[in-house]
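Changelog note: in this version the structure field was regenerated for every chain. One regenerated record is shown below for reference.
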Amino acid sequence: MILDVSRSIVWCLGVVMASTACGENKRDVFQRGLEIESAAEQGPCKLHYAQNAQAASLSGDNVANCLQQTELALVEYERAAKLGLAKDPEFVEVLERAKLRRGRLESMLKHVRAMETDQLVEAR
């Protein structure tokens, strides 16, 4: 799983770096952000359910990887805004949704890491 996430991050960074080499279109930059979010939903942000389990298994590493992908998408959205897309209603909605997701993931990461720490202390 970590290898898949690493490949995803490398791919996303490659796309970002390639785009800076030539002229950028605000819609293309926006689209890249959407693609990063979509890939994250299929990868690190996807919850995995264990067979016969009542809830999904969640780890701090999963949340951190999801947060990292969300941050990569936000970088693209901020670039699209600077290129002139900041007044487009669809773009504004997507940007705000991604910012809210980042806030929820940051909070979730803090809580999950605290629970993981508590479990480690109790196991000793």
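Spot check on this record: The CA atoms of residues 60 and 110 lie 8 Å apart. The longest strand covers residues 48-49.
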